[in-house]
Amino acid sequence: MVDTTKIEYGCTTSTSVLSAIETDKNKIIDGELLFVLSDFYEIDLRELQKLILKNLQIK
Question: pTM here?
Answer without folding.
Answer: 0.72
